[in-house]
Amino acid sequence: MNQNNTEQRIQKNSFEVSVLYVANDNSISLSVKTFLQKKINHLYIAENGREGLDLFFEHKPDIIITGLEMPVMGGLEMIEKIDKKNGSKVYITGDHFNRQNLLDAIDIGIDGFFVTPIDFRKLQFVIEKVFEEKNLGKNLQKKEAIVKKSEKNYHELFENSLVGIYRTSATGEILSANPALYKMLGYSSLKELSNSIQAVDLYVDKATRERYISNLDRDGYVKGLEGKWFTKNKRQIFIRESAKKSVNENMDVVFEGTVENITHQKKAELKLLHIAMELRNLIDTVNVPVIGIDKSGKINEWNMASDELFLYTKREVIGKNFIELLIPEKYKDEIGRAINDSFSGHCLTNYKCNLSNNKGEQLIMLISTTTRNNYYGNINGIVLVAQDVTRIERHKTILEKKVDDRTKELKKALEKEKELGILKSRFVAMASHEFRTPLTAISFAAGFLKKYNNKLSEEQKGQKLLKIEHQVKHMTRLLEEILHVEKIDTIKIKIKPRKLNFIDFIKPIIDDVCHFTDNTHTISVSSKQKNCEIFIDPDRGKNIFTNLLTNAIKFSPKAIQVNVVCQCTNGVTVVEIIDKGIGIKKNEITLIYDDFFRGENVETIQGTGLGLSIVKRNIKLHNGEILMETNLGKGTKFIVKLPLNNTRQ
């Protein structure tokens, strides 16, 4: 016998059960050996039947597990030589059994089989069963000793116990029952109980009685068997029963046991079960997704709302990893950490995140989590409740855009209002300056005529009246410019352009400008083509070039000539108005087309600040453009470009 045949001592928490494990050296399972070392307190190992038989007689183990084919002595031969009165439970093991081996084993009286590899759950059950039998036997022995020692104490215990205690014959005759039992069943005394019914008739379900007898015959005891009994008035109660099979002093088989009335407990269990079913129905029918996730991250709960939102059936998702299935790739790390933190008790409340459905569409969700705990209070999963806020978030985005657009509109309106304020200030300044001078001149001339009318010659009177007329025309022109701007801005002006010979078109305008400016400057006209044409509305065109020529003269006080050059190229008429005047400052170049704008260097020169604004508006009506080149102190060139084939109305 080698060192493996020695007794293996096990740690304190193992069952007080001894096992003899017999197998040849090649088939001794290390995993079985390791399992047994953890579960029991005495393990004996033999490599053949002869060694096993020696260990049996030496230690009388509670359980024998043996293979069949071994050197020296086989398993069946060893079992035949074992004294079964010892009470050892015998199991044979192997990877297969032929029919003859099975029949021989049954004839010998083995207690069961283990097919290799051994099912550790079954082995655990056998160990626990033997342990319970030993304990039950010990407990019964102790009780018998107590009864023998003090019959009085036993009787008091029997009579005053809150648990029903009974003794019956093997056929079901009630031999004894304590008050707790017969009162539990609605009887007034043992005599009434025993005369009214036999034990077999107490059972509502006869199968429960059959299981009771079967367990007693097989194991010698029954532990925690639950069933239903009839009371005296045929009311049904739930009971939990434990009993043992024994022999009385007359060598008759009797059943001794205890009975607990667990009706209230069962009703509470049924109530809890009903509540659980209602909760299950509530979870299944609630209109928000409810998802259960175990500690490994796999989905174990999935309600109908989850079906509808994520487009997966319950069958498709159970057992799948929540993070891999429902979280978009770019959010897996962030959302995955938040979900996993819930398993540490850091639950989420209205956590906004993106999840995806079976179509790959991303949904914006608010999720909350709560932990699920096992019987011992340990976290074994979480429940996730989700709310789809995709539409709300999209609507929010739309509203935010509307608010942003409205804010921009208001900002533009405020800027426009500010601009109007500036224009108003400019207009007031312009009007007070431009109208005061002619009005003063008119007033002075009229006063002079009134005072010296009789002393003036007709020629002198005519000169004064001509001066008044000139100032009135000047004021009229100022008013027309202001009204023209308003007309262009508020009314869609329809122009009537036509093709004209440029020289024929511009000469009358030049004559009027020279006359109006008292012929202070000479205006020369040249054309690079013999018959240069322009496509223009005559009235709008007169306004354009009158303003440009008048400005060229006004802002060239020290010059005596303005040049006009025309050419037609690539279907466009290009007209240049060139002066040798004061020029325009760089910081004012972008402002010259604004209403009422006047440069800092023209304060002493009359004007409304509307001329170029009107010019640009009229050119735009012709689908043309105006450009400007300037050199401060040396002069300015305005370039008007008008298409010859313009069809815009």
SSE arrangement:
Layout: E1 8-9, E2 15-22, H1 30-39, E3 40-46, H2 49-59, E4 63-66, H3 75-81, E5 89-94, H4 99-108, E6 112-115, H5 120-149, H6 151-160, E7 164-169, E8 174-177, H7 179-184, H8 190-196, H9 206-219, E9 221-230, E10 236-247, E11 253-261, H10 263-285, E12 290-294, E13 299-302, H11 304-310, H12 314-317, H13 322-326, H14 332-342, E14 351-356, E15 362-373, E16 379-388, H15 390-434, H16 436-452, H17 458-490, E17 498-501, H18 502-516, E18 522-527, E19 533-536, H19 538-554, E20 561-569, E21 572-578, H20 611-621, E22 625-631, E23 635-643
Parallel strand pairs: 2-3, 2-4, 4-5, 5-6, 18-20
Antiparallel strand pairs: 1-3, 7-8, 7-11, 9-10, 10-11, 12-13, 12-16, 14-15, 15-16, 17-19, 20-21, 21-23, 22-23
Protein architecture, described:
This protein is rod-shaped. The chain contains 20 helices and 23 strands. The longest helix is centred in the middle third of the chain and has 45 residues. The protein folds into four domains: 132 residues, Rossmann fold (3-Layer(aba) Sandwich), CATH 3.40.50; 118 residues, 2-Layer Sandwich (Beta-Lactamase), CATH 3.30.450; 103 residues, PAS domain (Beta-Lactamase), CATH 3.30.450.20; 152 residues, Histidine kinase-like ATPase, C-terminal domain (Heat Shock Protein 90). The strands form five sheets. A six-stranded mixed sheet has the order 1-3-2-4-5-6. The chain has a five-stranded antiparallel sheet with strand order 8-7-11-10-9, with helices on both faces. Strands 13-12-16-15-14 form a five-stranded antiparallel sheet, sandwiched between helices. It has 649 residues and is an alpha+beta fold.
